[in-house]
Amino acid sequence: MASPSDLLQYVISGATLGSTYGLAGLGFTVIFNTTEIINFAQGEFVMLGGMLAVFAVRWGGLPLAVAVLLAIGLTTLVGVAVDRLTIRPVRGQSVIVLIIITIGVSIVLRGAAMLLFGKDTYPLPGFSGGAPIALLGASLLPQNLWVGGITLCTLVAMKLYFDRTISGKAMLACACDRKAASLMGINVDTMVTLSFALSALVGALGGAILAPITLTSYDVGILLGLKGFAACILGGLGNPFGAVAGGVILGVLESLSAGLISSGYKDAVAFVILLTLLFVRPSGLFGRRAAERV
Amino acid sequence: MGGWPVGGRHLGVAAFAAGLALLPLALPNEYYLTVLIVAGFQAILTLGLNLLMGYAGQVSLGHAAFYGISAYTTGILTARFHWPVPAGIAAGIALVLLVAAGIAVPTLRLKGHYLAMGTLGFGIIVYIILNEATDLTGGPSGLTGIPKLKLAGIAISSDRDFYYVVWGVVLLLFLLAQNLVRSRLGRALRAIHTSETAAAVLGVDTQRYKIGVFILSALYAAVAGALYAHYVTFVSPGSFGFHASVQFVTMVVLGGMGSLWGAVAGAVFLTALPEVLRAIEDYDILLYGGLLILCMMFLPGGLAEGAERLVRAVRLLAAGRPPAASERTR
To answer: Which among A95, A100, A106 has CB closest to B253?
Structure first.
């Protein structure tokens, strides 16, 4: 039987991991809300955030903070490029076309990362030292606090963006009704590009803050993307706060099952939850049943 | 499609069958036969996946898992528990049908993206199980000692015999798919692809058809997997992961969604290509990604559409008219 301090440890590491799933889920939500596309390349944005930061430090010798910002900036540009080069030219095509294109994009990004950085696994130094802090018998890394703090700040910033700024509201308007938004003088194309940029930014941020804890490699994107999607479904697709909450719940469940049952199957937990949820409650824990638009 | 004279459909299949029968005689050595046998497994799976993607408009990123479940089930039963081969194959196929039904019912109740994500997750679960359940599957190093295919007491040992068996199955399943597509079911599926709402309004039970075609496509994968296991006599998880699922989707897209000939062509083409381009070995995944994007952007009908356009252009040229650049097929 696990002791209470073990359990606390599992919850801490699970919530940290889960924050990243939540940020990936947030990225899915932003793009889904403006375009109704599920972006299968979302996980690759997370991967790029971590890998680019690692290599900005290794190759460029940049200070960590600059490297992380650079990685996030570059990934955001990749997000814009993905929209401009592959999504915009096929706008208005059927869902299957868009799904296949984003799958293609994810494979190309992953392959490019493999070519560029190789197949090894890399560490990124913690943002403020590696000395653990003892907490009720469990140990807490400073990086855990960074992840939690940055995830919360991101959520608040998103909330403010969507509530208080014109472009945030314009993006929400596109989500409600594209045609009406465009009739109101909102440039829908720009909003879609912006949503890709924002989603890449959030994903890369998640990747960069997680890398010091879990290490990173060119192929972490598939699992992170999938878990991000599971987080979205758990929280109700389209609801940003649900996505983050779903991510944290998922991370904690995953870490508990790894600690208490078997670590080999820990990655399966997220998907078993995903499939079960799709079966019993497709609208998510916090979602209302969505009405179908014809 | 269309444009075939009456009976042309059967003529096409007959020519295809004759070509298949004669092909081994024209091959310079056994190596090409091996490539063609592997292409046959892929063609079977791709035919099924094409029914799902091309006719029901759904993407599965977990078909390699069905391929794997079937291969492993018959492999384990025949190698470890000494079941006869046909019984092993039957058990593999039955298990896949059960699992496919279990996935289809929850994910297909929802639209569009959910099946793709659900099957992607499912594929990863299966991959993890194949790696972790070491006692049963042999874990990452694989399962050895699977017996060669034996049908009605006759062992299929030579590559040439196996070639005829595999491509015979391809032909059979091709005909099945062709009849299906031209049946009431096929029309219903195409209606769902065009507009699910409209199809439902016209009285098509969209749920049931989508679930049905998903299970059917899993069945194709199961048949391919069972043949694979008893040809290679060794299975390891690496053949059934995400990479493989993507490869199958690429075959369907490249060949042309909604074209059965395209499915076979895509499978053969993409199986043969890495053999020709040895240098790309590690980077073939980049090639798949690039093909997926480019096909969708510039040739959504894949090779099938490309061939059709070519034929049309040649006909127009022969008739003395320049082909209209803006002309769209179908």
So the answer is: A100
Distance separating alpha carbons of residues A109 and A115, to the nearest angstrom: 10
Q: Which residues of A touch B285 (CB under 8 A)?
A: 107, 110-111, 114
User: How far away is chain A from the Cα of B189, in angstroms, using its nearest Cα?
Assistant: 15
| 3-class secondary structure, B301 | coil
Instruction: Give the class (CATH, top level) of A8-124+142-280.
Output: mainly alpha
Q: Hey, of B296, B297, B299, B305, which one would you mutate to test binding to chain A, going by the most A CBs within 10 A of its CB?
A: B296
Would you kindly state where each structural domain of chain B is located, as residue ranges? Answer: 27-240
Look-up of token digits 């016209």: B202
* Per-residue model confidence as pLDDT tens digits over B99-150: 999 888 877 766 656 778 788 888 988 998 999 888 888 888 888 888 888 7
Q: Which of B121, B132, B288 sits opposite A107 (nearest CB)?
A: B288
**Nearest-by-CA chain A residue for B110:** A282
Tens-place pLDDT, residues B218-236: 999 999 999 999 999 899 9
Nearest CA among B232, B256, B244, B271 for reference residue B36: B271
* Cα distance from N-terminal residue to C-terminal residue, chain B: 8
Q: Mean pLDDT for chain A? A: 85
Q: Which residues does residue A129 pair with via DSSP β-bridges, in sequence order? A: A127
Closest-CA distance, B39 to chain A, in angstroms, reads 22
Task: State pLDDT tens for residues B8-54.
Answer: 677 788 888 888 887 877 777 778 888 899 999 999 999 999 999 88
What average pLDDT does the structure give for chain B? 84
Of B89, B238, B98, B69, which Cα lies nearest the Cα of B165?
Answer: B89
pLDDT tens readout for residues A39-72:
889 999 999 999 999 999 888 888 889 999 999 9
B2-16: b or e for each residue (b if 16 or more CB lie within 10 Å)? eeeeeeeeeeebeeb
The whole-model pTM stands at 0.83
In the numeric block, the tokens 């799976």 are attached to: B45
Write the DSSP symbol of residue B154. E
Instruction: Give the integer Cα–Cα distance in Å for A20 and B290.
Output: 28
